[in-house]
Specification:
The chain is an alpha/beta fold. It has two domains: about 325 residues, Rossmann fold; about 100 residues, ANL, C-terminal domain (GMP Synthetase, Chain A, domain 3, 2-Layer Sandwich), CATH 3.30.300.30. It is built from eleven helices and 27 strands.
Length: about 450
Amino acid sequence: MRTIPLTRHHGEHDLFAWFEQQRISHAQFIDHVHQVAAQLHDKPFVINLVENRYLFILTFAAALLRQQISLLPPSRTPADVNGVIQNYPDCYCLADQALELDTPTPRCQVKIPSQHLGHTSVPDIGENQLAAITFTSGSTGTPQPHTKYWGDLAYATDAAAQRFGLYDKTHRIIATVPPQHMYGFETSVLYPLLTGCAIYGGRPFYPADINHAVNTCDQPVLLITTPVHLRACTAAGLEWKHIELIISATAPLDRTLARQAQETMHAPVKEIFGCTEAGSIASRETLATDTWRMYPEFTLRQDKSGIQVVAAHLREPVTLHDNIELLNEHEFIHLGRSGDMINIAGKRGSLSDLNLKLQELEMVEAGAFFLPEDEGRQQTLTRLTAFVVAPEADEKEILSALSQKVDPVFLPRPLYKVNRLPYNETGKLTLRALRELHLKLRNGERR
């Protein structure tokens, strides 16, 4: 059986991770992996709910060493975690903080080892070893599981590393997204393991925390983030240093925000396109082009089922649930998610495109359209709803400005002003969260 090392492109004394005053070399990491692997429960599945990013990578690697499959729920909410436990009963939970779960299951609370026991051998992992089961985010429905084999993850990481020049120089990765999500898993877990980049062990969430992590770094920073975090960071009035590249995903990034981020944070902004089924597959520089370019070794093809992603490491072609204008096998323009397409009074539109137009309004801090299910998607009299965060504007002003950008049939009725939108920790608005918000507002509850 062919194998791929757990870590690649690292020297023994290279920095692997840092957090405040703690610096962990590659040799220390390998020693930690062997120690933690010996402490894990003897079960086939492990739900990794660890929040400290270094400790998450450490426990994921230890589970690989024990040939355990890491289950990565779409969020750490009790509802999502309990759902995974019910479907994989022969599992245990890994955590670095207290858990509140309805379903009884064994738990293992882990810490970074304090001793050095001298383990030096980098483990070899079989290409066909099932490493993880990831779940779709639930942004368009019920989260669905997808298997990830070690070899597939390694080859996909190599393609991304080539695209973003991660082998060319030393980078320090700082990520604002959770490692359980496919985007965060690829960029803040697999990149450090397989490209030689070092990872910031915390998960800064607020602009001041992100700014502190970035500005105290001693090497060029690769910032892995989302449009939600970029909007907050550009509005915070902070000085930014050391960022070499910003990568954004989880939602479309409008050009106004990309320009503000680039000017404020003094670094180019690029977007990743992908899905849980195939991982990341393409990128673009937001301010330069609308065209997405596939990673090396990835191609697109069209057949009766739609647009498919093809790559040597994928077990089978992956059909994209997106509306795509295929330019050639390596380039495309994204027109929106298939589930985003709506038909109102005979006119077709995309919720993603409408969201971008709403968020581009200067008076709007955040906004999202929603099509209530109980009104039905096929009825000609369907009316869209929208939720907006706009403290300095009233509904009439917002609708007037929006009417300059969208067809009148897509103007929301009603438009709700809210204090905040229910983004999850990945920066996504799930369908379930929008349904709950709509129900509360329709019933007259304040939000």
